[in-house]
Design goal:
disordered N terminus; 651 residues; elongated; alpha+beta
Length: 651
């Protein structure tokens, strides 16, 4: 039993149109909200508060939980032909299994794997969620769903088994001026946090350094950096604006408040990623996303923030500069090494205590950029909302309002500068890297697969002419794509073009002559304006003896990717030859064969044939197949007469 629309959990649409959070609800939301994804988000934030620590392990736990929930939900509702890709893969689902129970069990198992000490609370949340389902925990639909969820969680936890331990490392400070060392407020026996995290296997990226920004200021050694005016400007800037006693002329009251609002550094808070997850739930609730869309949104945001942590920690520890924090730069400044910086042993950041890892890049900023990219890619940027904070230094009930996701991300980033724990270049580089991570995740993970929909129009006749107008046989959805395949016999060289009554533009993808006055063509229009049964599609061409024309509709296509074509003699199997390597793992191959007579064309295994158009014996045959891995693909089959063959891949 699935709920189609989520109940608003931690958000309400105010009269002004701003998505406003209710602090008490945001802090305590649990089961029974009407959306099991939002329920588990609330439980995740409770775990963050209980566990604490640096953000890398927290984002890892979130990504494990949400990807398991997505694969569980998709296995029940999507099956073998899901609208959107799985993260790891499909799990067998009994008929009638509950998608909500599948998500509940997946969330429980993945979260418990990450935070075993939180088992009582996690078990209690599972029981509470299952109790909301019709029939209760023993209902066959619930039992079946739980089996799916357990399998999805096991796939994720098996994939991540031992990953954290394999990258465990220690950081030994060199105490070279400019290099990171523990800052005031830490026990001398304390260590730098998670120095190996940049080597953790990413959730989506190819490696931890895939989006590594340039080194601070472009410097590759400490001496050159410290002696530069650029470094002096960075240090002096944060000294003026980030200190506990900064003048109002250097840091306004609002800048001080935003610094504290986004901090959430102390254990007992939901930490920086938790604040962003809370806003995600707020927006998802207010936008009334159904549970499947909510699960996909949280999977994407969690993957992006987990990979943002890896990106930030790679930059912090795995480059030639492990930059010291502003408090070290100011307290320990050397007039010899940095003539543009004056030492102040008493300077203290507004934050009081500085996080125990290197300064460049800012983790907050990288998380914010990655989150902001996914949110604006999903909803568009200009979504006004209000948010709350968990930081104890901010008065309970305080909210801040934003006009867009970018505005929130940038304020989150710059907050670290005004808090005195980062330089401006930390925040700027972190945001840039985060934006790149988020966009990469959104456009590479859990994507809609290109899919064939239906034949829209067709005609074949031995009628001499130079144009053909086809009535649209079924409505074509906005944003779908149309491929026109044509075989023109006894024709000559010259332009071939397609138009329709809605003004969609068609591009010739491939025009292949066979050497005997016949041509086989493919034209494409990607992301069309909608067409109805009153619309027409017109093909113009040089005067021809026969025409075979078919128009087919595809969905979730963003571009024509690769093309291959070939011609062959009678009696040989047809084969377009392999395309170039496809650009994405999930593409659709569209095959076209023009054959000068003979027996009906047959297609090789893997292709789904479409209706063949025949005039006397000449044939235009088309087919499609979905592929799951990056590779080179051909259109192939058998024909008894001279042929042309074309393969077009769609992504």
């Amino acid at each position: 039993m699935r709920r189609s629309v989520a109940t608003v959990v931690v958000a309400a649409l105010t009269a002004s149109g701003v998505l406003a959070v209710t602090p008490a609800q945001a802090a305590t939301a649990t089961s029974g909200t009407g959306n099991h994804v939002l329920d588990w988000n609330a439980d995740l934030l409770k775990a963050f508060k209980a566990v604490g620590g640096s953000p890398g392990p927290l984002t890892r736990a979130a990504a494990m939980m949400y990807t398991a929930m997505w694969d569980a939900e998709n296995s029940v509702t999507g099956g073998a032909s899901p609208v959107y890709d799985y993260y790891l893969g499909r799990q067998a689902a009994p008929a009638g299994a509950s998608a909500e129970a599948a998500m509940d069990q997946a969330a429980h198992d993945a979260l418990l794997n990450a935070f075993p000490a939180q088992q009582p609370a996690i078990d209690a949340e599972l029981n509470a969620e299952l109790a909301t389902l019709p029939g209760g925990a023993n209902d066959p639909a619930v039992v079946g769903g739980r089996q799916v969820g357990a399998a999805a969680a096991k796939a994720v936890t098996d994939r991540r088994a031992g990953d954290w331990q394999k990258v465990a490392a220690t950081y030994t400070p060199s105490f070279v001026d400019g290099s990171y060392r523990l800052t005031p407020g830490y026990d001398p026996t304390a260590t730098a946090a998670d120095p190996g995290w940049g080597k953790l296997p990413p959730f989506a990226m190819t490696s931890g350094d895939q989006f590594r920004p340039g080194l601070p200021g472009g410097f590759s050694d400490y001496g050159s950096m410290l002696a530069s005016q650029a470094y002096a400007d960075q240090v002096n800037d944060v000294e003026r604006s980030g200190g506990v006693n900064a003048l109002p002329s250097n840091r306004s009251d609002d800048q001080k408040q935003l610094a504290l609002f986004w901090a959430n550094d102390a254990d007992g808070t939901y930490k920086p990623p938790g604040q962003l997850f809370e806003i995600t739930g707020q927006v998802a609730g207010a936008k009334q996303l159904n549970e499947a869309d909510t699960a996909r949104l949280f999977a994407l945001t969690s993957i992006s923030m987990a990979d943002a942590a890896i990106t930030a920690w790679d930059s912090k520890y795995d480059t030639p500069i492990q930059l010291w924090r502003p408090v070290s730069a100011i307290n320990l400044a050397s007039a010899t090494a940095s003539p543009g910086v004056q030492q102040d042993p008493a300077w203290t950041p507004l934050a009081g205590k500085t996080p125990n890892f290197p300064s460049y890049v800012s983790g907050h900023s990288t998380f914010a950029g990655a989150w902001g990219s996914v949110m604006r890619d999903w909803f568009g940027d200009n979504v006004p909302f209000a948010a709350r904070t968990d930081d104890p230094r901010v008065a309970a009930g305080t909210t801040r309002s934003f006009t867009s996701f970018t505005a929130a991300a940038e304020e989150d980033g710059i907050s670290r500068f005004y808090l005195g724990v980062h330089y401006r270049w930390d925040t700027e580089a972190g945001l840039g890297a985060g934006y790149s991570v988020g966009d990469y995740v959104f456009h590479s993970q859990l994507q809609a697969r290109p899919a064939y929909l239906a034949r829209v129009a067709s005609d074949a006749a031995a009628v001499s002419g130079a144009s053909l107008t086809l009535p649209v046989g079924r409505a074509v959805g906005a944003g779908d794509s149309l491929l026109v395949s044509a075989m023109l016999t006894n024709t000559h060289s010259g332009a071939v073009a397609a138009t329709d009554s809605q003004g969609n533009a068609y591009t010739v993808v491939k025009d292949t002559p066979d050497g005997s006055s016949d041509r086989t063509l493919v034209l494409a229009s990607v992301g069309v304006r909608p067409l109805s049964s009153t619309d027409t599609i017109t093909l113009t061409y040089p005067t021809t003896g026969e025409h075979h024309v078919a128009v087919d509709e595809f969905t979730k296509v963003t571009a024509v990717d690769k093309v291959a074509t070939a011609t062959g003699a009678a009696g040989t199997p047809f084969n377009s030859g392999a395309t170039g390597t496809t650009s994405a793992a999930k593409e659709l191959v569209f095959g076209v064969a023009g054959v000068q007579g003979g027996k009906t064309v047959t297609w090789d295994a893997g292709f789904s044939p479409l209706p063949t158009l025949t005039v006397v014996e000449d044939q235009l045959a088309t087919a499609y197949r979905s592929v799951s891995t990056v590779g080179s693909y051909a259109a192939s089959g058998t024909a008894t007469h001279q042929w042309t063959a074309t393969a077009v891949t769609l992504r």
